[in-house]
User: Fold these one by one.
Assistant:
Number 1:
Amino acid sequence: MFFRSFLSSSIVVLLLANPGASDDRRVLDAVKSKNKQALQALLTQRVDVNVPQGDGATALHWAAHWDDLEAADLLIRAGARVNAVDDNGGTPLWLASLNGSAAMIEKLLQAGANPNAALKSGETPLMTASRSGSLAGVKSLLARGAMVNAKEASRGQTALIWAVAQQHADVVRALVEGGADLHSRTSSRQEVVTTGVYRDETFGAFVEVQQGGFTPLLFAARNGDTASAEILLGAGANVDDTAADGTSALVVAIHSGHDALANLLLDKGADVNAMRGGYSALHIAVRAGKQELVKALLARGANVDAVLVKPTATTRSTRRDPSLHYSFVGATPFWIAARLADVDMMRLLVDQGATSSFVAPGGRTILMAPVTAAALPAFRANESRSLEAVKIAVELGADVNAATEQGDTALHGAAKLGYNTVVEFLAEKGARLDVKNKRGETPVAMTSQYLDPFSDQVVQERKSTAELLRKLGAKE
């Protein structure tokens, strides 16, 4: 106990040393170290409270940082400049907003803090408080003239956009009531993206796309924030808001896996056939395997035979995301379901009038889709599902000997994948065993291509497929 008292007294003595120095940082250091005893003693001696540290931050900045209302009050009474800025343009009010401290925000505003003093990046206290989710702080700032539609410089984001992005629905409501622009957009930028590069593929497709251009509703769609979306739509937001790449709010919601938000947009009259982004809500719902959403889209007039025009960008998590690979371009939802061997989805779409005789570019029929020779790991179904999909295609009248423009048949694809049950089924249905593609390759020849040197299992599977084909009567 004696040691603690001695240490405290020593700190006070040290902080009180050298009074009157022009760079006297003792007040700042007292607040920074939360030493209230030293602060009160220094203020009694009228030590300058506005001496900054190296980056321009003052004692009042530190009081705001620590959310120390008592220290802030003492400093303000002693003449602290409430609008002092650090090297980034940050004021004590900005720090209070960063903390989401409504009480500190109110105290500083009452003391004359400028509600529109922005960082060098253009970020205002209102934006920061909105991102932090401080409803009372946001209301205080708005009441004192904070510019509700100010934009930061990097991407043109507003307080409303940040509130929606962080899913602070109560703040969203306050900003909307305060006159926030429902139609504001983030800036857009041109980016080169890949639409699919995988180990068993030679090259992917690289395209330039516009990224960004998101409105508050598009952020709500991406995050699945139904509460904020309802507020925005109720205030007049456009249910068909479209991002810079052409994707609508409905497409963004489904692509992001937010079924409830998608259904809300449907209930509000979203255009189910919007395809400015190159693909429709139905394409992505089928790709994601969302049967209930597919039913809802079709019930509202979605075009069951819409043709995919553009692929989606590939991300690092595409093996989980419902991406549309560039090899899907030119396909209908039913062809995509067949490619994924989603048997239940195939039946659902056929029942809803999908054209089962559709042929994708290059001559790729529905029968070929589940056993596409260039099938990718992220889109490849297992053998049993592929067999079921092939059976459905045959039931629907698919020609087992139809060939692509390169001369490949469904049997070529099944052989290359090593799907023996599919090979047997196709042979049973009359598939030609010795058919050659335009490269002169038979189905047997396909079993020796693209063997994975790192997987003995793949090698053995394809060897067994070659043996099966020979047993069925195929020749080299």
Number 2:
Amino acid sequence: MRQAGRVLILLVVALNWVNAQDAEEDASILVDREVSQTAVYLGDVFEYKVSILHSNELAFITEELEDRLIVRPFELLGFHVEQTDLGEAVLMEMVLELVCYEEPGLLDIPSFDLFYYPRDELSEGTGTAGQDVPARAITVPPHKIHLQSTLLGEEDQLRDTTLLLSFPRGELIVPTVSGILLLVVMAGFSVVAVRYVVQLRETDGVEDQAQLQEEALSAIREVRQRGASQEPEPAHYLELSKMIRRYLHSAYGFFSTALTPEELRHELETNTSDGDFAQRVENLLDACDRTFFDPGMAPGPDFSEACRQAEDIVQSTPFEA
């Protein structure tokens, strides 16, 4: 199969061959040229391949060939040679990687000479190639390639006028209406989902508030019972004050245990719209603290009345901000 491919290459090359300068000496050499692109833009890199099919009785000089090639106005970026033995013939393929930065137009890849020797003359010569045996040359003809411009010409357009979708506009009514209905349904579903989530959060908030109030009232009742079973002591007022502060901390989140009654009132006025509630909290905490820290001053409410005021504060707590 590989040999059949080689034979096909020979036929293609033979159809495009170019005679060498000396017909008698070079009749056994066929030259073919091809480019990877027939048109390139400024700065595009393309390949220019020259195929030389010759008898195995000839030997081409490929040493330092890259340094001797002149391809102006093109620039040579890469070069490699591959030779394939086909029995009585040899296929030599030279691939040049070229680029051009000239003005757009139809350009010629310039011609160049390839040098070779008949092997029988080399074997009969007394010196090295290039000294006693004169080299023969074959010229690779020029090859045209079109260098295109990236700028628009007079008749060029940025976009063509080809209609991508060719159907009556009336057929768009059904998909348009369906899309609108789908958007409406999705919007309605979104509104219902948001309301459901809000209701769940509100329900959870109400349950948390009720539980918080119930725990605070239960703690106040326990303190009241201890105060009723024995003579109320200043420590009972301190315990009641701490209880109210912990409750307010849980209800509003600010650090109420470290605030004075007056500072606590300011915080409550900031977090609620009920000034009377804030004032009642300040009065109760101020009375409890005064009874504990300075019992020699005018007495505040008795302990049972203080507990009743604490219960009233818990039950009337405004949770809305």
Number 3:
Amino acid sequence: MKPQNWAGNLTYRAARWHAPETTEQLQGIVSRCQKLKVLGSRHSFNDIADTTEDMLTLENFDQIVALDHEHNTVTVEANIRYGTLCQWLHHQGYALHNLASLPHISVAGACATATHGSGVGNGNLSTAVSAMEIVTANGKIRTVSRECNGEQFDGMVVGLGGLGVVTKLTLDIQPAFAMRQYVYENLPLSEMETHFEGILGYAYSVSLFTDWQTEQINQVWIKERIMGGNFSELEPIFFGAPLAERPLHPLISLPAANCTEQMGVPGAWHERLPHFRMEFTPSNGEELQSEYFVPRRHALAAIRAVSELREQLAPHLFISEIRTIAADTLWISPCYGQDSVAIHFTWKPNGQAVEALLPRIEAQLAPFGARPHWGKLFAMNAAELQSLYPKLPDFQRLLRAFDPIGKFHNAYLERYILGSSS
């Protein structure tokens, strides 16, 4: 049986699989193959990493390479999981600026698709990348960096797997810090209308969970950075929402045991920024996911537009999450040039129903220039998608410069990125 992605909605079609143990072996494989794609932790929900020819897994490239105290960076191999890296970094007295909901994902895969955490002042995970080592189509190693490659580096970080095999990444780090997390329930939507910026900007990271079925946000997850070891008592009411009396899972029917600690208990940054604990599997993977990024200035209107579909969403949705991400300069990042709000959908595993719903959601969000997450399910056609990225022609030229023979191209890249000539 051929391998599948984490969600089980995609069976990889590769004819041949490779799992090199050294960079030299990897270079040889790249040199010999006509067409090649790379898999990380398999958390994408579409065919962004699929191929009908050779597939390379980086399961043996999961080590920490170097910690640079002078420049405040850490260099890691591509397939290290964030959870593993963060535990080690914390013991060294350092932290990353942000983390995604799951600590189980690989660093290279998350950065290549502009995966993100939350916070009005926090860029997505790829904004921490300051250098990369890439094995290019000819099997040679090329090192690129923010310092040496200037603006062009902004086109390389979110590379969608099209530049080559990223084997190492260097990430910016900062001194370790403490946080606490707490949850409020049933935030009135009327409060969102009048206090939107105050709610989402209340703390270092804020997430809103909703099923769209009432005039309330089901849960507000607040991740607060503790400065100097000082913190106040938790407010019993947050913009009309009462403080939760027990730890909660985003899906209220599920136990909170696999979620990171709540109730305002102080802890390390890496034990509060993700929603789920590294030592637990957050779910069985029996779900599908979509996500759309809209400019923050349009967020309220976009939320209202989605809420008009509540009856259509209800039978197929587990939960939605709404988060903020700061603007960045990365050419193909959904947050390129705009402070953004991401509207995330966690679907029940009914692919046909989700496929039918996505065009309706996208039609509601179209007036706001919504950009889909590269690694999740969307229905948008190539022309519409490409129109959302002003640096796309530059990115097309960059891909062709790195890989003139198209060794790392696949159906996904041809469809969405390279289908229109620059």
